[in-house]
Amino acid sequence: MNTKIVLVITLTLSILISCNDSKKIVHLNNDHQKAIPHWSYSGETAPEHWAEIEKNSDCNGKQQSPINIIHKDTDSVPAKTDLKILYTPTTLISEVENNGHSIQFDFEAGDSINYKNETYYLKQIHFHEPSEHKVNGIIYPIEMHLVHLNKTGKITVIGILGEEGNESQLFEFFESFLPIETGKTKDIHQNIDLSSLFLEDKHYYSYGGSLTTPPCSESVNWIVFKEPIILSVEEVIKLRDNMPLNNYRNEQPVNERTIYYNY
């Protein structure tokens, strides 16, 4: 065979092999990008690893949530006037979604609370099973978070612990929209009466903390009610079956923070 022809064939094969290798490298790089770990509640992306995998988060901060509230270590203050619950029987839920971390109900503009002379608007409610906050080391079967924002984006979260007992009409209403698959959303646009929680008559703990999911943003006002609400075992199980198993963050150090008991 002519030497020139052999050289041309060899060069062509080298280029083709090089292109194929490049495509493989690009494919591997794309796969690597897609495989960047996302936070979860188990395995290598569980809460104890959030600070590592969520690089720009506050997850390794000094004012993190949730915490174990030890009643004897709190500062008692007669400050129930700091919190005014302004929920009405005509609160409108816009939709429910299973975001892969919890069941979340999103609200249309309307209901609000007034905390320390600032108005915070109810944005969404979601659930953790079992509870994230502890009171005197006690872990409750479930915890409901009512997330509020003011006009500047500051966050106040109300945490309500749930104890097993009789059926709850409120939870029966929530669960009437379940099951819902991960990543799916259902439109609701129905009224819900959150005033049935009777929060005005209950005592609460308050402290400065963070979101309990990445990015674990700090400067969050936490209000955790001391008295739990009652719901049935079946209602707890139905919520649990629609969420990741044990979708709670581990207890965080209190550090130098003051926890208040508002009576």
Automatic annotation (TrEMBL):
InterPro entries: Alpha_CA_prokaryot-like, CA_dom, CA_dom_sf, Carbonic_anhydrase_a-class, Carbonic_anhydrase_a-class_CS. Gene3D superfamilies: Alpha carbonic anhydrase. It comes from Flavivirga aquimarina. It catalyses: hydrogencarbonate + H(+) = CO2 + H2O. Keywords: Lyase, Metal-binding, Zinc. Its cofactor is Zn(2+). PANTHER family: CARBONIC ANHYDRASE. Its EC number is 4.2.1.1. Reversible hydration of carbon dioxide. This is Carbonic anhydrase.
